[in-house]
Amino acid sequence: MDLQTWLERLLQLHPKDIELGLDRVRPVAETLGVLRPARRVVTVAGTNGKGSTVAMLESAAVAAGWKVGAYTSPHLQRYNERVRVQGVEASDAELVEAFEAVDAARGEVPLTYFEFGTLAALWLFRRTRLDLVVLEVGMGGRLDAVNLVDADIAILTTVDLDHQHWLGPDREAIGREKAGIFRPGRPALIGEREPPASVLEFAAGLGARLERRGFHFDLRDRGARLRYHDVQGELEMPRPLLAAPAQLDNAAVAVRALRLLRMPAAAIARGVASAAPAGRLQRLPGVPEVVLDVAHNPQATAQLAAWLDIQGGSTRAVFAALADKDVQGIASELEGRIAGWHLAGLDGPRGQSCEALAERVRAALPDAVPSLHADVPSALEAALSAAAETGQRVLVFGSFQTVGAALAVLGRIGRVLGP
After folding, report:
1. The dihedral of CA 113, 101, 141, 256: what is its sign?
2. Where in the chain is the domain with CATH 3.90.190.20?
3. Residue 1 has pLDDT above 70, yes or no
4. What is the pTM of this model?
5. What is the mean pLDDT of residues 328-342?
6. CA 126 to each of CA 32, 102, 292, 327, 367: distance values in angstroms, whole numbers, following the listed order
């Protein structure tokens, strides 16, 4: 089977898209021998900021000459994006070989799409003999397949409301689930200044080596430069290439992890400054300017709002979100900042029509008069045409699926380089 056939097959192996828990997947991992995929492992959980933090860690390790693997999800355009070694995506052939190995080991165990992919990534990393593997949690932490691995360092970026159906109704419940990646006696790094009490209580009860931004380490904005400090001393570095205000929070916790790994200071500075994962306030110059962001909950959208306030000017938005997201909360964060809404439908079991999306946007913004489009490509084409005539920027956001579809369109018209 080729990669596409495998991916289609993975969707049929389990009756549910999401089934949290480690009881089914752990025996398969033990059979594969992947519970220790590298000499060092860092696991990153959080509501927002995971992918950017992983990118900083990965970039610094490459700069230091370490052999590093990274596992992230979801992907924007190609499944291969999820599994990288030295910053290079796994090939189709490598992924197919890994899927075959997992399939042979699982027997009749019904793995979900994410569980199967996680085991495949760990199998590829294990046989590549890496110095470091950086793993991004898919959802939550305690019951996520990534949590099979006992990380040497666990990072929790932020805790906010998202995936409440699976993780709990409030920050305290969600924080407790995400803190499940902590381990006794090992560093547990928290990137936000005011985490839920449940996170602190869990870490204390477990005996993890808790370190918090603002208490044990911090990073200050000095304009053109940043100044980081912890018990090991100070470090001055360039600003991150990533533009959102919260990227300073991500940089702070990433630097602390890298210092604990004894990464050279020069590599840390280069890694934080150069990391640039796609779809994180990704700016495409031209007429009109296009900005792509995977923000899909109110906390992430608040960062978009803060960035727009700094930039000024007028913005048209292409927005498409999954049905289980807090659309009203997302739209409310952008009140008064969007001159024109282009709402698009998304396919799939968690998708929703543009009409359903519009009803929810209007509940938050009664004065909005959005234009409706069946899909992201048609919404983007309309927004680009309108913005070119008015001198506005175009902001595309709402989900990985939204940004991925936009990137495909922009690639076809020469606004971005192809894969």
Report:
1. negative
2. 282-412
3. yes
4. 0.93
5. 96
6. 10, 13, 34, 40, 55
3-274 topology per CATH: UDP-N-acetylmuramoyl-L-alanine:D-glutamate ligase (3.40.1190)
Per-residue model confidence as pLDDT tens digits over 157-178: 999 867 667 677 889 999 999 9
What are the tens digits of pLDDT across the range 122-157?
999 999 999 999 999 998 889 999 999 999 999 999
Q: Which residues of 372-387 are buried (b: 16+ CB within 10 A; e: fewer)?
A: bbeebbbbbebbbebb
Task: Answer whether residue 116 shows pLDDT above 90.
Answer: yes
Token output for 259: 């210092």
Pick the CATH number of 282-412 from 3.90.190.20, 1.20.1300.10, 3.30.360.10, 1.25.40.10: 3.90.190.20
Q: Which two tokens stand for residue 269?
A: 């500075």
3-state helix, strand, coil in the chain (%, to 5): 40, 20, 40
What distance in Å separates the CA atoms of residue 120 and residue 32, rounded to the nearest whole number? 9
- Distance, CA of 235 to chain centre: 26
